[in-house]
Amino acid sequence: MYASIATAFYIAGILCAIEAVMNTRTAQGATAWSVSLVSFPFVAVPAYLVFGRNKFEGMQETYAARKDEIDGLLEKYETEMSPWRVAIGTGEPWYRALQSISGLWQTRANRVDLLVNGERTFDSILEGIAGAREYILFQFYMIHDDELGRRVQSALIERARAGVRVLVLYDEVGSKGLTAAYLEELRQAGVQVSSFKPTQGWRNRFQINFRNHRKMVVVDGRVGWVGGHNVGDEYLGKDPEFSPWRDTHVRIEGPAAQQLQRVILWDWYWATRQIPEVSWQPVPAPESDTRAMILATGPNERLETASLFFVSALSGAQQRIWITAPYFVPDDAVMKALQLAALRGVDVRILTTGKGDSLPVYLAAFDYIYRLRGLGIRFYAYRPGFLHQKVVLVDDRISAVGTHNFDNRSFRLNFEVTAIVVDEGFAGKMETMFVQDFEHAELIDPEALDQKPFWWRLGVQVSRLASPVL
């Protein structure tokens, strides 16, 4: 019996090695997987089934199952959005490429409000929920059954009992501690609840390394929220270990809220195979003409949309690139874009957390900081508490606020979403926020990392090697 099991593992290792050679993204990854699978199949085969997959399967088949119906809705959506589109020729250099790969457009007639930290963010979201008249689309990577979670639950239940349709979607891994009682209370009140269910379909049962990392709310198709916050007390600064928690969200009113709605509904359709009835009529924000668009990326895409956007935006920078990245583990393309920007004389500043919630990810960042030394790039470690926001400011016009971290997981393994705002007034508010954050941070000297103890430098290198799956 043992001989048969061993033979089966070695055969599986060879088959998986062939698959890795054919499909792994990089030559280094293909080599590492194939050698491990053939040499140590008892460990490598289970690991490869979970971590080796780099494309999320099944969404195309799901779409094909109701293609005519979905195409009809998309046609209606495109028609309704057409008056609010920003023409390709009037956008930034990266806009044409981004529109081609994402299928979404910059829109005008939006109002975008910057929401700094948890109290302001959830006060805004809860106020929006209370004002819902038709429906609420509520999707978060992480929902906790704690004080904030129960406040949110009560608000959603109140609206559901008032006749508002409420949909709640969460990620199984991010919300692994969410209690059955919490979910049942929502369902009893008429709230429709689902997890993302990445493993649907017999071929997809090992898709457990993918996460839906998005955090979004849409009310009545008119107003939306997106950013770095999850639903948990720590995001209000109530975790003694990580307090004060530093994070950022945005509130979007206008046609871009319809783009956010489209993202949520596609995730909901994957999870439930249901197509909810919603309004597809964009409503312009009163007395505001901010340009904005929603960038949704995921491992189901043929191209690496997130990395391509950031590389393009960074490559076009003329004056500054300011980035906040709690998990700074960029890929080679982003590294080169940062190096070239610094060599062009662009003011490049990278703010990361001084207190990590994951030691391997925290340590891995120092390898990339060290490799960017000597170029004039300034690195900062935020000191008061844990910094979790994911924001970018390019020059005096382009801002990004969302869920993307600067790491392999966000670029290739997670479903992510970011609001891109093209507006000088909003960029000015972002600048003020950055300056205040820099004042609460300490400069990191990359050259001084050479003086760290051997065990620390070894930990950095081991963490870097593991960073693609962290």
TrEMBL record:
Cell cycle in keyword set: no
EC annotation from Swiss-Prot or TrEMBL: 2.7.8.-
UniProt cross-references to InterPro entries, sorted A to Z: Cardiolipin_synthase, PLD-like_dom, PLipase_D/transphosphatidylase
One Pfam family from the record: PLDc_2
Domain PLD phosphodiesterase: 208-235, 383-410
GO MF term list: cardiolipin synthase activity
Enzyme class: transferase
Transmembrane helix in keyword set: yes
GO CC list: plasma membrane
Compartments it resides in: Cell membrane
BP terms from Gene Ontology: cardiolipin biosynthetic process
TM annotation in the entry: 30-51
Keywords: Cell membrane, Lipid biosynthesis, Lipid metabolism, Membrane, Phospholipid biosynthesis, Phospholipid metabolism, Repeat, Transferase, Transmembrane, Transmembrane helix
Matching PANTHER family: CARDIOLIPIN SYNTHASE, PHOSPHOLIPASE D
The protein, known as: Cardiolipin synthase
